[in-house]
Amino acid sequence: MNEALPIRPSLSAEEIITQFSLLKEEQPEIRARNAAAEIGISEGALLAAKVGTDAIRLSDDPEAILKEIVTLGEVMALTRNEHCVHERKGIYENPSFFQHGPMKTGLFVNPDIDLRLFMSHWKYSFAVSEPSKIGLRKSLQFFDKAGQAIHKIYITNKSNEAAYDDLVAKHRNAVQTTTIEVEPYVPKAAEKPDTEIDWDKFRAAWEGLKDTHDFFPLLRKFKVDREQAFRNVGSHLALELDNSAARKVLELAMTSDCEIMVFVGNRGCIQIHTGTVKKLVEHGSWYNVLDPKFNLHLNEEDIGRSWVTRKPTDDGIVTAVEIFDSAGELIVTFFGKRKPGDPELELWREIAAKLSPKEVTNVS
After folding, report:
1. SS3 assignment, position 125
2. Is residue 167 domain-shared with residue 201, that is, in the same domain?
3. Considering 100, 190, 196, 249, which has the largest number of Cβ atoms within 10 A of its Cβ?
4. Domains in the chain: how many in total?
């Protein structure tokens, strides 16, 4: 989803570690992702440089590893993009993997661990043991071909640490290299001009949707970008909101005790929380949910545009609040709790109705 950082292949593992150590001296709290960006490498390249000390390279079969995470018991799942971090505690039960031609996908569908996986992007896997304020912190970390983090799984005090050690030993890569080959993604293509799209046909197709999962194929059929569709389809289907929308959704969900669904993803993984939110905390530019099983960290400074969208289904209208960055990449999406076959929560519709539309300045 986000473009790869400029890569500096001339840096050796030793040079990377030296620069990282200097950064940690200056900024003890700096996170690996930010340190890698300052060095000018990917996070995956930084982690590879730690192989032999803090990291172990695992096999190139992430599916096999994921199928065995259930043995670890309760862990913490972390999925993020550039602007939002989604953390959920639970057990990795009920894995399913599917092959659709060249595309491989996966699912974990559980009350706590609820993931949609796009396995063609899963390239590198590591086991990591890092010192922290609470002792050694163990995790499994997965990266794409550009060295960007797709998904991380952290051991908690409720996890089976012996099972973690067994899994790492079983899936340890025979070759423990301190470098990875990184390949940047092709930049996103420019959107098709509005004038080349039959918006009446597109609007009719949107209004004829039977399932929310049919929306992406609809965009692909008409060769329309997501926000481009929102701008042109009509306010009864997509309305731009004030960029306070994400915060207001969380506040209104908390005060009304409404169960919501919070989707955060990147190229390789979408992670979903379903339930209430209780503890909301502002910290600088970050707005946070800090609940026992669910944490969300949203950088409000990075919000470019916010929308409420309404998609018809066989179960009635499904309302979403979709938050984008300035480049048009999706940051986080909110829904009311629902399952196929059930109508949308009325309480969720009331929340969506209370969100403020974007103010449009009249130009004379």
Report:
1. strand
2. no
3. 249
4. 2
